[in-house]
């Protein structure tokens, strides 16, 4: 994610729309409106520029009395006219009149890679996101009642209605007006999927508004002090296989326009952005798993018969140490007993349990692998970037093949290291680097 502090985000928005207007056919606006006594608050909304060959959703209005969910389709010029040169915090969007947003364009503009979740927003293509009316000074009464009306979808509360209708996952922040998120996609080209399997990386590229021959792929892989960055990789086919000399801890992929050197899209695996990117798949070969089982548990490998509290301790321990894999479906004698639960249900249960029990949140890769005609579930845990991680208030680290509760001195070392890192970051910022 690239972050901009712009003196005039309105001008930047208008310029970018003008430069790319031939890609789009119209703008799809989804709105969540709360009706109060003397005003209609546009508490949250999403405006997406739709690609010329893509289908629109239908215009709808769901009126629950004091809450309205509405979707409207506007021509591009019609949408641009909503934002004159002078600041304006009241919008009329077709028949939806006098919608109050609070403030003008926010100075924060985000440039996000494809299929990456941030602040509840996700899109298949790289996007630039502008905020209009993001106002922490304007709040609304909490709406906790059911939203149930004939001919309307039913929701237990306003937050669920907002998330479902806007297709986002983000909690309300102190009932403040979030305003309108304007999403301007970059339809030149994107990294569609990345599959990582030991030392092999398979990358699928999709191009729309740029010729494939004009693209190159740049790679940087790292493991401890080892680095690998090959020469420019030409995009001869839509799917590219890259071999690297070691199993990388962090991998960066950049899709570049070779003519003007623009970075069109990028993927980061192994750092804090890993958990936000939905296009990365980790594939562990069954032969590798068989070899790991023969060798037994160690600092980076743990066997578990099934999900349990000890399983969660291992997740925390790996995050607080160097990362590792938990293999479900193996007993403590290294016998393969298998996992017979429905994988989709089990994956969701594992993620929900990790998110609910461990703080700060940890994102893991979960896959199923067939070994000796039995199904195993592999949970790959990256080394955490926000240590220490806690389970029920306790921190664990990996010591050989065991999970050990952290002592006071180890925790003090982590906190001291974090404070030092924060001071260094502050100094770098002061120097303007």
- Mind describing the biggest β-sheet? 10 strands, mixed
| Individual helix count | 7
Number of domains: 3
Helix content: 10-25%
Q: Give the strand tally.
A: 29
Strand content: 35-45%
Q: Enumerate the spans where pLDDT stays under 50 for 5 or more consecutive residues.
A: 422-433
- Backbone shape: globular
Provide keyphrases for this structure.
ten-stranded mixed sheet; 433 residues; five-stranded antiparallel sheet; 20% helix; Methyltransferase, Cobalt-precorrin-4 Transmethylase, Domain 2; Immunoglobulin-like
At a glance:
The protein has about 425 residues and is an alpha+beta fold. Helices cover about 20% and strands about 40% of the residues.
Structure in words:
The protein has 433 residues and is α+β, with helices and mostly antiparallel strands. It has helices spanning 9-20, 76-80, 158-166, 286-295, 309-320, 343-357, 408-430; strands at residues 2-5, 24-35, 40-51, 60-63, 67-74, 90-93, 96-100, 105-112, 127-132, 135-139, 176-177, 179-185, 189-197, 200-207, 215-223, 226-228, 233-234, 239-243, 250-257, 263-269, 280-282, 301-304, 324-328, 358-359, 365-371, 374-381, 390-391, 394-399, 402-405. Strand 27 (390-391) and strand 28 (394-399) form a beta hairpin. Residues 422-433 have low confidence and may be disordered. Strands 1, 2, 3, 4, 5, 6, 7, 8, 9 and 12 form a ten-stranded mixed sheet that branches. Strands 15, 16, 17, 19 and 20 form a five-stranded antiparallel sheet that branches. The chain folds into three domains: 2-185, no CATH class; 189-282, Immunoglobulins (Immunoglobulin-like); 286-407, Methyltransferase, Cobalt-precorrin-4 Transmethylase, Domain 2 (2-Layer Sandwich), CATH 3.30.950.
């Amino acid at each position: 994610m690239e972050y901009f502090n712009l003196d005039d985000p309105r001008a930047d928005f208008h310029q970018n729309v003008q430069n790319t207007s031939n890609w789009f056919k119209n703008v799809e606006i989804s709105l969540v409106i709360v009706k109060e006594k003397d005003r209609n608050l546009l508490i949250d909304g999403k405006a997406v520029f739709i690609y010329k060959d893509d289908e629109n959703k239908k215009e709808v209005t769901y009126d629950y009395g004091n809450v309205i969910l509405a979707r409207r389709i506007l021509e591009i010029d019609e949408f641009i006219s909503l934002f004159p040169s002078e600041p304006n915090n009241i919008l009329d969007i077709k028949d939806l009149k006098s919608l109050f947003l609070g403030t003008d364009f926010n100075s924060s503009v985000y440039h996000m890679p494809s299929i990456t979740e941030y602040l509840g927003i996700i899109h298949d293509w790289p996007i630039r996101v502008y905020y209009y009316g993001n106002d922490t000074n304007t709040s609304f009464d909490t709406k906790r009642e059911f939203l149930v009306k004939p001919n309307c979808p039913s929701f237990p509360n306003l937050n669920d209605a907002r998330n479902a209708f806007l297709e986002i996952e983000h909690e309300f922040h102190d009932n403040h007006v979030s305003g309108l998120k304007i999403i301007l996609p970059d339809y030149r080209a994107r990294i569609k999927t990345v599959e990582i399997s030991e030392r092999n990386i398979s990358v699928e590229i999709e191009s729309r508004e740029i010729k494939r021959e004009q693209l190159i792929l740049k790679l940087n892989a790292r493991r401890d002090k080892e680095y690998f960055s090959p020469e420019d990789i030409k995009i001869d086919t839509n799917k590219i296989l890259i071999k690297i000399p070691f199993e990388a801890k962090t991998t960066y992929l950049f899709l570049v326009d070779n003519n003007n050197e623009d970075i069109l899209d990028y993927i980061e695996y192994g750092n804090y952005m890993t958990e936000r990117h939905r296009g990365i798949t980790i594939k562990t070969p069954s032969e590798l798993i068989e070899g790991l089982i023969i060798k037994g548990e160690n600092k980076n490998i743990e066997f578990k018969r099934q999900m349990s509290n000890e399983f969660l301790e291992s997740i925390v321990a790996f995050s607080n140490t160097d990362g590792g894999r938990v293999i479900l479906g193996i007993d403590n004698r290294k016998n393969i007993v298998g996992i017979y639960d429905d994988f989709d249900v089990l994956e969701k249960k594992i993620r929900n349990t990790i998110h609910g029990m461990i703080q700060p949140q940890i994102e893991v890769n979960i896959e199923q692998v067939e070994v000796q005609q039995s199904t195993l579930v592999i949970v790959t845990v990256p080394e955490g970037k926000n240590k220490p991680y806690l389970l029920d208030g306790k921190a664990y680290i990996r010591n050989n093949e065991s999970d050990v509760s952290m002592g006071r001195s180890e925790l003090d070392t982590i906190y001291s290291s974090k404070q030092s890192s924060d001071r260094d970051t502050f100094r770098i910022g002061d120097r303007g680097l």
